[in-house]
């Protein structure tokens, strides 16, 4: 069965009492024993919960992994993965990774728990030069945030295997319907389910999916030990969101392509970053390793910060807010919002200029989105200053 079909059936077998078509929310901390030493499969909800299990099974199935753990946030997923490793390992991480991941890795490095190097993973020579005797894993994000740079997963995974390193891919900017890193050899995939997988901007959640049973044993142990697991109601919401993932993704991508094409021909737009455009530097690799180009579009504008402020204040359909992957379109300014915690020189090195705007393109009517951007971009670059 295709993923689209599997998703509609997901979780239907959870309720053995009354066969409800939707998994019940087992909102309970503990489970009654049938007899001394005898349970019906669950004893305590940190260790296991049927609603969470239903979500984990769907995620592992979609990703092609051995198993999964649903966590309380995307950052809890990152923490759980890092907790799999011994003290003192060295991590090679994408130089343009999610800000929260950079913050956590840098914190753990300051605390002496691990070592980290931030490297442009598109450059395998640079990755090779960064390897230390204690290097254990490469942390990848593709497409990256906010410039949607693409890392060649096939090349990177081959490189990692040759050097006996594990590959972790944060796949949050896409979904397993568009990119399955394990098909290229990745060992672990993490998500912020807050974004596309839940898709309705009403949950903070995350997930870790592992390729092998051996990694899964460690994962289940560590998630239970650290208690980073998601609550039943949030898992139920993510399961509900997942059912419509295929149709949402189709509309996100249809709209994002239309928005990218519109922006690319607009006189007030300097540059558009969307992997679906042939002009994007990573287009060919994205076309090879992704089934779709995603719903995120970034662009730079003429007229500097004043123009940016004018646009951010003018849109009516695109709402000024951080986050991404929900049904509603969002607009934000990386330099002062999502990437404000980076030092200015870090931002500059990452190519995040002050005139860069990021869009999370939602599932609204395409024409409404284009019309909204059209009216917001209708300014004279020379006279936009307030
Ligand atoms: C949002 C995000 C995270 C963190 O997820 P939370 O659910 O906010 O904790 C991690 N990685 C990426 C790429 C993200 O976009």
From TrEMBL:
List GO terms (cellular component aspect).
cytoplasm
- Co-factor(s): pyridoxal 5'-phosphate
What broad class of enzyme is this?
Answer: transferase
Give the EC number(s) listed in the UniProt record: 2.5.1.48
In terms of CDD domains, this protein maps to: CGS_like
Positions of modified residues (N6-(pyridoxal phosphate)lysine): 195
User: Which UniProt keywords are present, listed alphabetically?
Assistant: Pyridoxal phosphate, Transferase
The domain of life is Bacteria
Q: State the family it belongs to.
A: Belongs to the trans-sulfuration enzymes family.
Protein name, entry field? Cystathionine gamma-synthase
Classification lineage: Bacteria, Pseudomonadati, Rhodothermota, Rhodothermia, Rhodothermales
């Amino acid at each position: 069965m295709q993923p689209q079909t599997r998703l509609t059936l997901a979780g239907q077998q959870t309720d053995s009492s009354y066969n409800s078509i939707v998994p019940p929310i087992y909102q309970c901390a503990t489970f009654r024993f049938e007899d001394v030493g005898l349970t019906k499969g669950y004893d305590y909800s940190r260790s296991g919960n049927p609603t969470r299990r239903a979500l984990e099974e769907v995620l592992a199935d979609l990703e092609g992994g051995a198993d999964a753990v649903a966590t309380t946030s995307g950052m809890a997923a990152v923490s759980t993965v890092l907790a799999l490793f011994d003290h003192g390992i060295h991590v090679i991480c994408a130089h343009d990774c999610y800000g929260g991941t950079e913050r956590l890795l840098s914190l753990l490095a300051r605390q002496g728990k691990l070592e980290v190097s931030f490297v442009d993973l598109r450059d395998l020579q640079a990755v090779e030069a960064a390897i230390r005797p204690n290097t254990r894993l490469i942390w990848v994000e593709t497409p990256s945030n906010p410039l949607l740079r693409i890392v060649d997963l096939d090349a990177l995974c081959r490189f990692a295997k040759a050097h006996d390193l594990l590959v972790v891919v944060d796949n949050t900017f896409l979904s397993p319907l568009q990119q399955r890193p394990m098909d290229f050899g990745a060992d672990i995939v993490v998500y912020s389910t807050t974004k596309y997988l839940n898709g309705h901007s009403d949950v903070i959640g995350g997930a870790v999916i592992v390729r092998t049973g051996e990694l899964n044993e460690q994962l289940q142990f560590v998630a239970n030990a650290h208690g980073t697991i998601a609550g039943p109601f949030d898992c139920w919401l993510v399961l509900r969101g997942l059912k419509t993932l295929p149709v949402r993704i189709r509309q996100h991508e249809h709209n994002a392509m239309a928005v990218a094409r519109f922006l690319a021909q607009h006189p007030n737009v300097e540059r558009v970053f969307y992997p679906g455009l042939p002009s994007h530097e990573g287009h060919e690799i994205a076309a090879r390793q992704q089934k779709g180009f995603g719903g995120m579009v970034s662009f730079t504008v003429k007229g500097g910060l004043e123009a940016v402020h004018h646009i951010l204040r003018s849109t009516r359909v695109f709402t000024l807010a951080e986050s991404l992957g929900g049904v509603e379109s969002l607009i934000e300014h990386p330099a002062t919002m999502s990437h404000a915690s980076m030092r200015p020189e870090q931002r500059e090195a990452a190519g995040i200029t002050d005139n860069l705007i990021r869009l999370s393109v939602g599932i609204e009517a395409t024409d409404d989105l284009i019309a909204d951007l059209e009216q917001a971009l209708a300014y004279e670059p020379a006279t936009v200053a307030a």
